[in-house]
């Protein structure tokens, strides 16, 4: 079971966007996550038919998941996540600070 999934609310712990929070939009193959409003980079583009002026385009870049931490909705602070096997045999994730089960 993966630690981060699409829709999780996370806090950036390291890097140029340290302290910002957002929602995971996408998990990339190489252990990176695209987070809404975090990790914006400038991409220079040549003039094309779609963008006739060209110029600088702001784009969301992936952030390595080691620099992310879940936000506990009860405390509002960064927390770790664990996995529990429920009585019906399914596994679910839970916040270690509050013990609240989610997804």
TrEMBL record:
The keyword RNA-binding applies. GO terms for cellular component: ribosome. Residues 3-30 form the KOW domain. It holds the Pfam family ribosomal_L24. Keywords: Ribonucleoprotein, Ribosomal protein, RNA-binding, rRNA-binding. Transmembrane segments: none annotated. It comes from the Bacteria. Signal peptide: none annotated. Belongs to the universal ribosomal protein uL24 family. HAMAP family: Ribosomal_uL24_B. One of two assembly initiator proteins, it binds directly to the 5'-end of the 23S rRNA, where it nucleates assembly of the 50S subunit. This is Large ribosomal subunit protein uL24. It comes from Candidatus Cyrtobacter comes. The lineage of its organism: Bacteria, Pseudomonadati, Pseudomonadota, Alphaproteobacteria, Rickettsiales.
């Amino acid at each position: 079971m993966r630690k981060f999934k699409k829709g999780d609310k996370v806090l950036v712990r390291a890097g140029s966007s340290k302290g910002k929070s957002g929602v995971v939009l996408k998990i990339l193959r190489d252990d990176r996550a695209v987070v809404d409003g975090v990790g914006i980079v400038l991409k220079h583009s040549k003039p094309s038919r779609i963008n006739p002026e060209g110029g600088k385009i702001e784009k969301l870049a992936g952030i390595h998941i080691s620099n992310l931490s879940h936000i506990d909705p009860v405390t509002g602070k960064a927390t770790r996540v664990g996995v529990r096997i429920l009585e019906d045999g399914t596994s679910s994730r839970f916040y270690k600070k509050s013990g609240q089960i989610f997804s």
